[in-house]
Amino acid sequence: MHRITRFSLIAALAAISLPVFGAVRGTVAVVPTVNASGEKWVEFKQRQAAMIDDWEVTHLPAAGYALTPRDDVRSAVRALALDMTDEENWRRSVVLEIGKKAGAEFVLFCAITSTEQKLQKRPFYEDKEGRTDVRVWLMDTRTGEALLTGKTFTGRSGGNRVSLDNKGSERQIQAAANAVRDATRDFLAPYKAK
């Protein structure tokens, strides 16, 4: 019984320390995020997409995944003559082909489809909550297995708190990253993204 407990402890520590000691769990091609939310404010749309891209670049390596160089991913998109802002290209086969062409083991693509802010009226204050819907594709290019294939995740930020900076647009931007965090939770485990 003592050996089983010791083995379980060692196995758990090995799984948790995998990213810490530099063992790579695989390479991920991160296709640049597309914002197709219909929002008219261009700078806001760019910041929202950049927030997701920054989140991916920060948390995937922290979880033990190596990132395929962005230039390789962009070259793959160009070589396949794709316009990822066109919804017709948001298909499993297309995203999978980008990952293979980029030479990655996994491919991740996110598209923001809608975003809004909602005013929360509380007894003594008003608060804004940002909400963003993000469709996520995550596939294993070696097997063709889809871990996520266009599933929509709704990210939320704010609500139920008092803050000095009560800008709904900032909360919508954070909500986009929160949607991707929720979508990739199982893929990143045991790493816990914030």
Write up this protein.
The chain is an alpha/beta fold and 194 residues long. Helices cover 40% and strands 29% of the residues. The chain has helices at residues 2-17, 42-62, 70-79, 92-102, 168-183, 185-188; strands at residues 26-35, 65-67, 106-121, 126-140, 146-158. Strand 4 and strand 5 (146-158) form a beta hairpin. The protein is globular. It starts with a helix and ends in a 6-residue tail after the last helix. Residues 1-21 have low confidence and may be disordered.
What's the SSE blueprint?
Blueprint: H1 2-17, E1 26-35, H2 42-62, E2 65-67, H3 70-79, H4 92-102, E3 106-121, E4 126-140, E5 146-158, H5 168-183, H6 185-188
Parallel strand pairs: 1-2, 1-3
Antiparallel strand pairs: 3-4, 4-5
List the total number of helices: 6
- Kindly report the spatial arrangement of strands forming the biggest sheet: 2-1-3-4-5
- CATH domain class name: Alpha Beta
The CATH H-level homologous superfamily = ABC-type transport auxiliary lipoprotein component
Beta fraction: 25-35%
| Major sheet summary line | 5 strands, mixed
Structural class, by secondary structure, is: alpha/beta
User: And the CATH topology?
Assistant: Rossmann fold
- Determine the oligomeric state from the structure: single chain
Mean pLDDT equals: 85
Q: Provide the succession of SSEs.
A: HEHEHHEEEHH
Architecture (CATH level 2) name: 3-Layer(aba) Sandwich
* Helix proportion range: 40-55%
Distance between the termini: 36 Å
